[in-house]
Each structure stands twice: as C-alpha cells, then as structure tokens.
Amino acid sequence: MTNIISKGIPIVFLLMISQVVLAQQVDIYKSYKTTLTISGTSTLHDWTMTSEAFTCQGNFKVDNNKITDVKGLTLLVPVRTLKSGKGAMDKNAYAALKEDKHQQIQFSLVSIQQQGDVLLCVGNLTIAGVTKPVEVETNCVLQADQTLQCKSKTQFKMTEYKVEPPSFMFGSVTTGDKIAIEFKISFKKNNPTNTL
After folding, report:
1. Whose CA is closest to 74, among 114, 35, 31?
2. Radius of gyration of the chain (CA)
3. In this predicted structure, what is the pLDDT of residue 126?
4. Which of 21, 45, 79, 123 could bridge to 99 as Cys pair (CB 3.0-4.6 Å)?
5. 189 exposed, middle or buried (CB, 10 Å; 0-12, 13-18, 19+)?
6. Exposed/middle/buried for residue 162 (C-beta within 10 Å: 0-12, 13-18, 19+)
7. 3-state class of 15 per DSSP?
C-alpha cells in the first residue's frame, strides 16, 4: 500500500504542476493588419495623416476565448509611413517630428487594467525623442478564427512632446496643438504557446 502511495505522489505532483503551467500560458501575437490615424485642426481645415505600415507585438494570455492579461506590448511607427496625401504637409510634419534624428514613434506597455473586453493600457509613448507616460483605452476582442481585433484612441497636445505644431503657406496656415490618435490593429498568433 505504501509503495502505491509513494509511486502515486510524483504523478499527482506532476499533474498539479501541469495545471499551474496551463493556467499561465501566454501566446505571442504579431500585427498583420494595422491602421494608425492622426487627426487635428488648422486655421484652414481639419487634417489627417495615416500609416498602414507599422508593427505591434504583444504577449496575450487567453483563457476560455477571453483575453485575461497582456505582457510586453510594443508598437513601432516609422514616421515616414505617415501620409496625408499632400507632400508639403508631410514634409512639414516630418520636420516637426524631428524625423532626421528620431525615425520612429514608439509605445511600450508598462501595466494594464481590464474590464471585460476593455483594456486600460498604461505605457510610455515616445515622440520626437521625448518619452511620457500615457493611458490608452483599448477594446480588444478575440475572434472565432483566433485573431485579435483591437481598437483604441487617445488625445494629447503636440507641445507636450516638444513638437511645434506645423505651419504652412509661409505661416499663414497653422495647425492646432491638440491631436487625436486612433489605432486599429489585427493580431495573429506568431508562435507556439509559451509561459509567463
């Protein structure tokens, strides 16, 4: 009887460990379809710039087809992928963003709070070489095909990042300081399951 019990203990122990590991499984998801829109105002008309060529990667923990945690989320936007459809505006925007020295806009996740499908992401946003903490509310839903669809929007002033609002036509047209940034990102699983 003692032998049966002693042989059974390692098996039970391994089963317990496996359950803990399964509870901590996390998958790396990489963006495969992205849209970033920056919108603002000017003394002439409202304006937008869009990028569809940036990358985002994160470690998402999924239980019962629901996202329960996010780790290590990073987003990189090459400045020159931002396009307005107007060459002069793009050129002035790149200059204002100091693209010659700082080629990317970057966001790195620090912490997260979750309420259902809504994730309150707290992280560091770097623009034109200046890094500041921001809070971004994100709606993130796991689809039937196991892809993730995430949408978020935030607002701030360009001068908070020491970016001088661009002007056009020899200064006769000036842009407003406040801008809105909207993200739409589709993720797919990039690797076999790992553990946190």
Report:
1. 31
2. 22
3. 96
4. 79
5. middle
6. exposed
7. helix
Chain center to CA of 183: 8
| Residue that the structure tokens 């629901």 belong to | 66
Residue 155 tokens read as 């607002």
Domains and CATH numbers, the chain: 26-195 (2.40.128.110)
| pTM metric for this prediction | 0.79
Q: What is the rounded average pLDDT for all residues in the chain?
A: 83
The pLDDT of residue 23: 44
Token pair in block for residue 136: 């971004």
- Each residue's pLDDT tens digit, 24-71: 467 889 999 999 999 999 887 899 999 999 999 988 888 887 888 888
Residue 25 CA, distance from chain mean position: 21
CA distance 118 to 121: 9
Residue-wise pLDDT tens digits, 83-122: 999 888 899 999 999 999 999 999 999 998 888 778 899 9
Determine the 3-state secondary structure of 76 from DSSP: strand
- Residues whose CB falls within 8 Å of the CB of residue 121, separated by 6 or more in sequence, listed in order: 70, 73, 109, 112, 135, 136, 137, 138, 152
Amino acid at 110: V
Contacts of residue 137, Cβ cutoff 8 Å, sequence gap at least 6: 118, 119, 120, 121, 152, 153, 154
